[in-house]
Amino acid sequence: MATEVLSSEEAQVAQLADQLIAQHPPASTSAIAFLGAQFDAGLAWVHFPVGHGGLGLTPKFQKIVNEKIARAGGPNSYARNPIGYGMCGPTVVEWGTDEQKRKYLRPLFTGEEIWCQLFSEPGSGSDFAGLSAKGVKDGDEWIVNGQKVWTTLAHLSKWGLLVVRTDAEAVKHAGLTAIVVDMHGPGVEVRPLRQMTGEAEFNEVYFTDVRIAEAEMLGNPGDGWRVSLTTLMNERVSIGGAIPQQGSGSIAIAVKEWKALPEDRRDASTRDELMQLWIRAEVHRLTNIRANAQRRMGAPGPEGSIGKMESANLNKDVYAFAIGLMGADGMLYGSYEMVRPETAMGYDGVQKAFLRSRANSIEGGTTEVMKNILGERILGLPGDVRVDREIAWNKVPRN
Ligand SMILES: Cc1cc2nc3c(=O)[nH]c(=O)nc-3n(C[C@H](O)[C@H](O)[C@H](O)COP(=O)(O)OP(=O)(O)OC[C@H]3O[C@@H](n4cnc5c(N)ncnc54)[C@H](O)[C@@H]3O)c2cc1C
Predict the structure, then answer these.
(1) Span from the CA of 43 to the centroid of ligand 1 (angstroms)
(2) Using one digit for the tens of pLDDT, what is the confidence trace for 286-302?
(3) Minimal CA–CA distance to 104: which of 218, 222, 259?
(4) pLDDT tens, position by position, 6-18
(5) Mutation test of ligand 1: which of 117, 204, 362 has the most ligand atoms closer than 8 Å to its C-beta?
(6) Which residue in the list 204, 216, 235, 363 is annotated as catalytic?
(7) Whole-angstrom Cα distance, residue 287 to residue 274?
(8) For residues 289 and 285, what is the distance between their CA atoms, to the nearest angstrom?
(9) CA-CA distances (angstroms) from residue 140 to 53, 185, 216, 221, 341?
(10) What span, in angstroms and rounded, lies between the C-alpha atoms of 24 and 34?
């Protein structure tokens, strides 16, 4: 039998993970206590600095930790706080001051403080750099006014990663500033937006004369676009870059539905369709493994957009197939009563997953925009038409 040879860093990470599990058995430890101990051991994001939830290693070792904890039945920070864990944590660690890192990262990781991402606005989604929520300086505070939309989990969030326009005379990308906002502070109003699943996992958020201390900025005034790129690159990887076990995830659900069919409905052409999807799921998984290997030493790049795009297309096709297998039962849906879910993206049956999957090619950047990124940054095709690139934001015609 071949014996796996671990590098000393891998062995160190594996040993720390074993110790964590032995000292805090998941069966008898609360999720918050376990995740707190995981953070303190540097096993939250192993690539983060020591003292801020990491060990200063390359991100590839995180898999060792996650697999051991999952096998032991331990909690998962992503499931509790998906936007915080996947996107806001990596942004705070890259752009935050030491004080911000100390203040925010641990409770973010344990899920005691949920985070949301306040980027999209009614008039700026794909063209998020054109946003108009405004921040005006008043002494050592920003006063913020404007509206954000599609804000996942804002109703549960303690903190929001907010991007506002602080210089309307600069070109659109240059006039933005990123700030951490207290979602429970005066002037912040969160209203539910109901999706076709019946759930309202996202919201519209209104800011009326909200005062935010200057010290809550991530980076400096005008850095908002670069800060956002850190968030968006991590978002794409977080949504589409997972490396699941072979045959797991949505394709496993399709296979399960297939196996549940009576013998006379398992015809060759449906089986062929299932196999095509299974192959695509495997190709997607292998592509993510390759992208992960390329990313090992640094921040995620355009390959995150490939994973994001294909995970959306695949998920939609797999659930459309699975619901087709269910025949008329696929139309049975529990209730459309509005529900405020405790987390986003939870699985709750094929019917809901089918409806929810329609959002996959919109959230985190649309498939069309991913194609633009791939065309320009990977294939070297001519760029998209951008007429407002060199014009001061307040001179760009808009309705
Ligand atoms: C479930 C869900 C959760 C979300 N959660 C959050 C969140 O937590 N925080 C947040 O800030 N936002 C969130 N969003 C918003 C999301 O990021 C935007 O919906 C997305 O970026 C698209 O923006 P838009 O809806 O304004 O569409 P638009 O940008 O108006 O696009 C409309 C259509 O035009 C196409 N299009 C636009 N520009 C181009 C182009 N240059 N080339 C080709 N086609 C183009 C698009 O692909 C799309 O088909 C969420 C969205 C969904 C669906």
Answers:
(1) 33
(2) 988 888 777 765 555 67
(3) 218
(4) 688 899 999 999 9
(5) 362
(6) 235
(7) 20
(8) 6
(9) 30, 17, 10, 13, 37
(10) 6
**Nearest atom (ligand 1) to Cα of 127:** 29
Is 121 part of the annotated catalytic residue set?
no
Pocket perturbation via mutation, ligand 1, pick of 366, 370, 372, 377 by most ligand atoms within 8 A of CB: 366
* Closest C-alpha residue for ligand 1 atom 13: 150
Enumerate the H helices of 41-191 as residue ranges: 62-71, 77-80, 82-83, 89-95, 98-110
Neighbouring CB atoms inside 10 A of 39's CB total 22
Segment (H or E) for 346: none
Q: For residue 117, give the ligand 1 atom closest to its CA.
A: 9
* Contact predicate 228/172, CB 8 Å: no
Whose C-alpha lies nearest to ligand 1, atom 24?
125
pTM over 0.85: yes
Q: What is the pLDDT of residues 357-371, one digit of tens each?
A: 999 999 989 999 999
> Would the pLDDT of 48 be above 90?
yes
Query: Measured in Å, how far apart are the chain's first and last C-alpha atoms?
Result: 69
CB atoms within 10 A of CB 332: 9
| Calpha distance 105→21 (Å, rounded) | 21
Q: Which of 81, 83, 87, 120 to mutate to test the pocket of ligand 1 (most atoms within 8 A of CB)?
A: 120
* Other CB atoms within 10 A of residue 245 CB: 10
Contacts of 220 (CB under 8 A, 6+ apart): 177
Directed axis angle between helix 303-325 and helix 250-259, to 10°? 20
Pocket lining for ligand 1, CB < 6 angstroms: 83, 116-120, 125-126, 150-152, 202, 359, 362-363, 365-366, 368-369, 372, 384
CA distance 115 to 181: 10
Atom 50 in ligand 1: residue holding the nearest Cα: 363
In DSSP terms, 118 is beta-bridged to: 162
What one-letter code names the amino acid at 67?
E
Tokens of 300: 């995620």
Q: Which two tokens stand for residue 271?
A: 């089986």
Rounded Cα–Cα distance for residues 144 and 77 (Å): 30
What is the rounded distance in angstroms from the CA atom of residue 168 to the CA atom of residue 175? 6
- The residue whose CA has the least distance to atom 26 of ligand 1 is 125
Give the SS3 label for residue 196: coil
Ligand 1 centroid from CA 296, angstroms: 29
